[in-house]
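Lab meeting minutes (informal)
Scribe: AK
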Amino acid sequence: MPNVGAPVNMPMNVLLGKPPKMHHDVKSVAHTIKPIDLTGVDLQKSAIAVLSHPTVASKRFLITIGDRTVGGLTHRDQMVGPWQVPVADCAVTLADYQGFAGEAMSMGERTPLAAVNAAASGRMAVAEAITNLLAAPIELPRVKLSANWMAACGEPGQDAALYETVKAVGMELCPALGVSIPVGKDSLSMRTVWTEEAESKKVTSPVSLIVSAFATLTDVRGTLTPELNSAEADTTLILIDLGKGQMRMGGSILAQSLELEDGTVPDLDDPIDLVNLVSAINALRAQGQVLAYHDRSDGGLFATACEMAFAGHVGVSLNIDMLLVEGDGISDSRMDTGDSKNWAAQVGLRHAKSKHSRRCSTKSWVSSSRLLLPHAMR
């Protein structure tokens, strides 16, 4: 029935014509996943290699080429703390000059994982964007995503990998999280072909999903940073490991720096864990128990702790005994339980309130959640 009130009322086939439906017969390429072998890896060399990797290292050379606060409405830029270390999780701006309402923006991408598991890389990109955005006091239903899809369509397995990733993100994950993707774009010819010394060469990119996340805020003042506060006499770092100790190191910066292509990649196994994480962090934030926040960095837990320490110019004592074994640990350890790797969030809490916080947070998202409680000191 025609809509009389519509300024434009035209059938889509009149506007776009009647193009033939396109059908693609694509096939997936199976990957043989071998356990990652870190035997004999030098700890100090690996630590320096991870921190020096372009993905983890400082982006100051990009940030300082322009004015970060033009307009006077920037609440949170890339630089954190009095020493201006570029480790902020998200950007936050004010809506006007009078109030405290504003907007938060972040990004997420896990392209290296797509070489092994394209669908997992898409889920992790969304998860990274949301855990970055969680530094601000967001409400998950208000989050909107923009998806930038890139793939080398026509290459063996890439069309199927793109379909699997779009299905995993657009039809499964986002509906489960209650967030939408109203906008996006695609580039589907991610390959380069050239001739060198009469030999034809080609480089193709795996499926890449770059997610931009946006949310409006009623009050920007609840935004947290990774800066560890040296003025606090006694604080505790808590690792919220939503990977539940599976230690999936495939595609990590450590694996890349060691040129290892093996290993199972991390994944968002249960969207409800992420939903509950947002609720738990916001509950603790409202109680004033959270001093600092940082999502799991590309360099893993080690790089995350380093970035938090760099921002606050403090030392961090990490007891990792119980990342490796289950038990009571050494007598002077403050660690309760712990697991390793996968995407997660780190939260700095007042040590005096941490027992109550752990009861609140673990009950809120998953009863088997593991917490890492190393002592933070000057």
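Next up, CB showed the second protein from the same session:
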Amino acid sequence: MSVPTPQITLPMMRQHLYSAVVSDALDGLGFPRQSPRLQFTPYTGVDLLVGRCKTTLWVDMAHIDPHPYDLELRAVDSCQADDVLIAAAGGSRRSGIWGELLTTAAKNGGCVGAVVDGAVRDVAKMRNMSFSVYARATCVYDSLNRQRVVDVDVPVEIDGIPFLPGCLVFADEDGIVVVPREVEEEAIRRAWDKVHAENVVRDAIRLGMKSLDAFEKYGVLWSSFGDSAQFGGKWLKRPDVPRSVTESGHGPHRLSATHARIGAPRRCASRGLSSSGETDFSENPSRSESRIPAEKTDHAGRMIVSVRQGWCRSILSSMIEDFEHEQLRRQPHLRAALKVYGDLQDHGRDRSPDFDGWIPRVVEVAEIESSALPSIHGKLIAFGFLTFDLAGRDTGMRYQLTPLGKNALTGKTTSEEQTLDID
């Protein structure tokens, strides 16, 4: 029996998504033009608008309207829960086609906002009603005998972008994005995964990882972030981390800019840990600039590399990997989901020597709510335990354990698989 794919609801989208990340997801699905390149202003100050298109087509007029307000009133009276009124008026500023009265009527039916390719009025009153309105301009003139609706619930265009009745639409300060029905589920799932991946990448950057290395490791970029983060229960200040301890190319020994790992140092000062437990990145000893300097420690034969005026890149990489493994220990549901993929991969290899390791998206894990799985997938991708691929629009996403993910299930770390010899 097939298991239904867990749904990401509109309230969940309003809480976690935003227009830019949805646009990114659509880019990846081959839909690079789903946002009008026009300036829409969020006149009523509501942060994010998400709903389904209720379309109206408007035209300018210069004669007496024999049926004033007829179709616009029919449109707002037929609004349903989570509708977003789309007013396609060609950018006309001839009148304020949307205002307080239409807002009141639309809200009665459950409409959550309006996107107006034209002008609006009664802005202060609509703001007091907490009704989200995005428009091109304001105009004091009434629409009577100036503009009118000529069709309702039909495909319309704004800046050449089709808005179809029932399509999902996002609006915020960055812009308006409409999601085609045929890729809606996959686009929202990709956006959801990316948002949760960005949260993890943001934490890695706060720990000092360079942005290029974060992109190479996690494959996503992030939103804005501050200058501190929590790691292992301690708040760490963001260090000024050199890109590589051998960036200049001096010396015969080189470390990976991202994945070099060296064991625990022999004294706290080398990691910059103060007696208060807060990380102090200024307490790192200076060394020669011409080579990778190293000194062997007396702790399990491990070594520490000290870098002039900076936080040792290899130790930072170690901290990031420790952070990722700590998340599995603290969040058993992540390990449970990862183990399902591991078991499926083992089963696939047992059945066929040609098995490539790719697994269709898991939609059911014992003792885990299906609604939590999108977030879990995003975190596993962001931590580097899973990688993913789009097999096609019909097949959807597929996943595979990374070497880090395999090691996490066996309890190994990168340092246990690699030997770094610095003499």
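CB comment: DSSP finds 13 helices and 17 strands in the chain.
No objections, moving on.
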